[in-house]
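README: folding subset

This subset contains proteins for which both the sequence and a predicted structure token string are available. Records are stored as plain text. Below is the entry for Ubiquitin carboxyl-terminal hydrolase MINDY (104 residues), shown exactly as it appears on disk.
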Amino acid sequence: LRRLSRISRREQAEALAAALADTLWAAGGGRRAVICLVTTALHLLPSRDYKADNFTERIQLFEFCEKGAAQEFISDHINSFRAEGSHGVILFLYSLLFSRTLER
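--- output ---
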């Protein structure tokens, strides 16, 4: 426990990025990882079958064919997953679904 309390914020961020990348890579069958981030631009327009929630329509997908590139991207955007009010768990769930594919 004492050793854990000495881990820096940077080391925590690196460990989180590695764990997220490992999980997404495994979900993608070791071939790909899809990472979802929220942007300011709309990527989905409301329709008869979809009611806007001001979140889902702002999600942008980033696909990676190399695990290291996915981990680096997550590291660069780690606050999207861990900052207060970031919806990190929802973004990670979407990322898992898209990495695994909806068909699987």
